[in-house]
């Protein structure tokens, strides 16, 4: 029974970034949700090719290479990948980042997109604000709110009900472009207005000395990093909730062990962080041991992923103990959320923040590895 439990625990942690408390999750090379299928809660997916043709009544979060989303989404949509094709009706917000992005149909909330090539087709109707960062941006949809665009080549041939701000090297308005608010743009040259385009508010041209390629690339990079950070934070938070509610006993044991012998576990984690990969590499020398080495490699990856989750819980307990002077305090959902966001923000501080986060991770890694090896011995 203990071996079965350990196997399930390791398997769970191996895919922990895609586990969500109270949601449908999947991770595979090719994922397909048929048109007749209905997911009654949130759907979280990862795969090389992701095709969602069915209905998702909650949020849809996906990461992968090529993604085609055609089924309706009742909540928010968040995608990170290579090629993204979105033709579904989304009731909530849409936040996407990728290499090549195509969006059509309606979005009930905000639209945030960052990519190399971003095409917003005529069928797109955003209920609120639109923000786009990319290399080449083509917007032919409708934004009910305001819109901000940063790119190299920007082509506007849609409708913006409020203000529009554009930062780009080349800006062109197509014959169907309608801006009902003010238009502010930053560019080395004036925007091209094709016949039929109309701007109801004031037009303010802020001439720049040189093409904004570096600024555009910087804007795209920050947009992508922000989406990736949000995605990572959401995964860690939800996996942390799984840990404290579904695997409360083992999780509490690992966290308490990490706290009780913090520096000892940190030192152990630092050593194992390098020793395990070396052992795996050496195992590939022989054919017989290579299979065991492959298993060890997957287990090592699973431990690293799980340790990043445990590190948040360890950080939460450290904060409760040393900042709020709470020696015994049971972790709950809001503490996990706050701890994950704060630790994520701390990790962005140059050197000191990263070092602190790394040490906490090492303590979690050392404690979790000891716990797993102890179960194996039993």
Description:
By secondary structure, the chain is of the alpha/beta class. It has two domains: 2-217, no CATH class; 247-377, no CATH class. Helix content is 42%, strand content 30%. The chain is built from seven helices and 23 strands. It has a 15-stranded parallel beta sheet that branches. Strands 9-11-13-16-19-22 form a six-stranded parallel beta sheet, with no helix packed on it. Helix 1 (2-14) crosses helix 5 (287-322), helix 5 crosses helix 7 (352-377) and helix 6 packs across helix 7. The model is unreliable at 1-22 (pLDDT under 50).
What would the keywords be for this entry?
six-stranded parallel β-sheet, single chain, 2 domains, about 375 residues, elongated, 23 strands, alpha/beta, 15-stranded parallel β-sheet, 7 helices
Tell me the layout of helices and strands.
Layout: H1 2-14, E1 23-27, E2 30-33, E3 38-39, E4 42-52, E5 55-56, E6 60-69, E7 77-86, E8 94-103, E9 106-107, E10 111-120, E11 125-126, E12 130-139, E13 142-143, E14 147-150, E15 153-156, E16 159-160, E17 164-167, E18 170-173, E19 178-179, E20 183-187, E21 192-193, E22 198-199, E23 203-207, H2 213-245, H3 248-260, H4 262-283, H5 287-322, H6 333-347, H7 352-377
Parallel strand pairs: 1-4, 2-4, 3-5, 4-6, 6-7, 7-8, 8-10, 9-11, 10-12, 11-13, 12-14, 12-15, 13-16, 14-17, 15-18, 16-19, 17-20, 18-21, 19-22, 20-23
Helix pairs in contact: 1-5, 2-5, 2-6, 3-4, 3-5, 3-7, 4-5, 4-7, 5-6, 5-7, 6-7
């Amino acid at each position: 029974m203990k071996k079965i439990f350990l196997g399930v625990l390791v398997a769970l942690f191996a895919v922990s970034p895609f586990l969500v408390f109270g949601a449908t999750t999947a991770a595979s090379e090719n994922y397909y949700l048929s048109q007749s299928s209905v997911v009654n809660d949130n759907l979280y997916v990862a795969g090389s090719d992701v095709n969602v043709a069915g209905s998702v009544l909650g949020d849809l979060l996906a990461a992968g290479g090529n993604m085609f989303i055609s089924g309706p989404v009742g909540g928010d949509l968040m995608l990170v990948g290579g090629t993204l094709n979105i033709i579904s009706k989304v009731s909530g917000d849409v936040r996407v980042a990728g290499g090549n992005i195509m969006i059509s149909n309606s979005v009930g909330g905000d639209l945030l997109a960052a990519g190399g090539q971003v095409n917003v087709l005529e069928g797109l109707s955003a209920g609120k604000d639109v923000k786009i960062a990319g290399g080449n941006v083509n917007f032919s949809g409708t934004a009910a709110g305001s819109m901000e665009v940063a790119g190299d080549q920007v082509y506007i041939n849609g409708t913006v009900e409020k203000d529009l701000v554009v930062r780009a090297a080349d800006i062109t308005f197509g014959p169907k472009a309608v801006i009902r608010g003010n238009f502010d743009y930053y560019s080395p040259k004036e925007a091209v207005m094709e016949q039929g385009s109309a701007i109801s508010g004031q037009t303010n041209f802020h001439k720049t000395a040189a093409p904004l390629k570096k600024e555009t690339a910087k804007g795209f990079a920050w947009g992508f990093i922000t989406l990736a950070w949000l995605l990572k934070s959401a995964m860690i938070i939800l996996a942390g909730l799984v840990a404290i509610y579904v695997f409360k006993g083992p999780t509490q044991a690992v966290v308490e062990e990490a706290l009780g012998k913090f520096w000892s576990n940190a030192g152990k984690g630092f050593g194992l962080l390098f020793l395990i990969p070396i052992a795996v590499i050496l195992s590939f020398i022989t054919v017989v041991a290579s299979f065991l080495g492959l298993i060890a490699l997957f287990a090592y990856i699973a431990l690293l992923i799980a340790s990043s989750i445990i590190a948040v819980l360890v950080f939460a307990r450290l904060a409760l103990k040393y900042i709020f002077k709470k020696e015994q305090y049971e972790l709950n959902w809001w503490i996990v959320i706050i701890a994950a966001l704060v630790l994520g923000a701390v990790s962005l501080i140059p050197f000191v923040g990263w070092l602190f986060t790394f040490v906490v991770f090492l303590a979690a890694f050392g404690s979790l590895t000891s716990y797993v090896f102890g179960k194996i011995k039993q």
